[in-house]
Amino acid sequence: MASKNPSGKAFRNKAAGYNSPADAPVQDQQKTVAVAQSTMPAQREAAVPAAKTEAGLPVARPAAPVPAQRPDAQAPAMRDAALPSVPAAAEGSSAGTATVRQAPIPAAGSRMQHECSPRPMMAGNPYKPMPATVMDIIQETSNIKTLRVVLDDNEAMQAFTYEPGQVGQLSVFGVGESTFVINSPPSQKEYLQFSVMRAGEVTAAIHKLSPGDKVGVRAPLGNSFPWQSWKGKNIFFVGGGIGMAPIRTVMLHLLEHAADYGSISLLYGARSPKDMAYQYELQDWLDNPALNCTLCIDQPFEGWQHKVGLIPNVLLELAPSPHNTVAVLCGPPIMIKFTVQALEKLGFAAENIVTTLEKRMKCGIGICGRCNIGGRYVCVDGPVFTWKQLQELPPEL
Ligand SMILES: Cc1cc2nc3c(=O)[nH]c(=O)nc-3n(C[C@H](O)[C@H](O)[C@H](O)COP(=O)(O)OP(=O)(O)OC[C@H]3O[C@@H](n4cnc5c(N)ncnc54)[C@H](O)[C@@H]3O)c2cc1C
Ligand code: FES
């Protein structure tokens, strides 16, 4: 019998004689990571133990190498964007609690063709989630719930640190795990907050959880917003729908250090007032003297006293100056596409536009190859990228 990984998907490594990375001797796990560090994404892909069909059903991955391009793995954010070549490291990237090891320098004649960023080396079994308990659940909208979870190991909870923009894998035991941004600011030490939009199997199971239920957490993962390098600059945040989750983390973090920045602005849009998450905080944001907050909805709605219009149009109307300003956007792909066009129209340079990619992930630690774009892995080199970096990635998605 094949065992199941934390995603609930069966996998087996027949050659090595064990059923899961967790079963593997420590030296074999280290070997797996070392191999992943020294091979190209397409080659790594062949070692991926399990995959999911579009319908969300677990399937065994073929033992034979699979093609580098997998249309089923396309991230919507990227489907709409035209992306041409050569990767560059994400500014201010961080690998959380994992120890970061330098990528091997390719020997002459080696097969490494792309520059690779350092890969995180997790201590112990990198697939093992930390047990946690759901403390609180907030129904944000009809299809978004916010969960506040506390790690069961009190010491681990106290020691847990992360940077704004980093994500976690949240698992429902027996169902699987999915990636969500940690959307509480790092100063919030009582719990980790994830806002989850219902999409498929795992998110539906998360939506069924109640306070007191057990979950698993693998975090923090990925890089972070380069907020340190933004000091002295104006910051213009644009959040659309569930894309407000990563914006919330970094925005609240910056507001705690507002004196270090120029103006801090937020344009938050949703289809209707009912589709706006964090409604209980909106008035505070509007009243905060350190924040220029603009809210907008797509269509007129009775009683709505804020802007009406699509985010890119409202942005053009607000016309923030590109001078010494960084624009940070998160939202659905179509919003990103047109908001970037609006920012370019306003004179923003591609390196001053920062966004996040939601390329589907599995391991979240640079091993499985599920999230690669050219020589980059979204789970390690991202999810935060500048628009300039995205323009330099291969147009394979
Ligand atoms: C870096 C990162 C951060 C994310 N942060 C959040 C967050 O804070 N809140 C949140 O609600 N979601 C977030 N997501 C998306 C979330 O991970 C997916 O919605 C979730 O994995 C879906 O799992 P599922 O089993 O419920 O759906 P599945 O059964 O796996 O899929 C259901 C449908 O959703 C599509 N889908 C699944 N995953 C993705 C994805 N990553 N991108 C686009 N389409 C997808 C599938 O193609 C399918 O159509 C994030 C994803 C990434 C990679
Ligand atoms: S390499 Fe596995 S999710 Fe990125």
Short description:
The protein has 397 residues and is an alpha/beta fold. The protein contains 11 helices and 21 strands. Among the domains are: 130-221, Elongation Factor Tu (Ef-tu), domain 3 (Beta Barrel), CATH 2.40.30.10; 227-391, Rossmann fold, CATH 3.40.50.
Structure description:
With 397 residues, the protein is of the alpha/beta class. Among the domains are: 130-221, Translation factors (Elongation Factor Tu (Ef-tu), domain 3), CATH 2.40.30.10; 227-391, Rossmann fold (3-Layer(aba) Sandwich), CATH 3.40.50. Helices cover 22% and strands 25% of the residues. It has eleven helices and 21 strands. It has a seven-stranded mixed β-sheet with strand order 16-15-14-13-17-18-21, with helices on both faces. A six-stranded antiparallel β-sheet has the order 10-9-12-7-8-11. Strand 14, helix 7 (279-287) and strand 15 form a beta-alpha-beta unit. Helix 8 packs parallel to helix 9 (333-345). The chain is globular and about 50 Å long. It starts with a strand and ends in a 6-residue tail after the last helix. The model is unreliable at 1-114 (pLDDT under 50). Bound molecules: flavin-adenine dinucleotide (FAD) and FE2/S2 (inorganic) cluster.
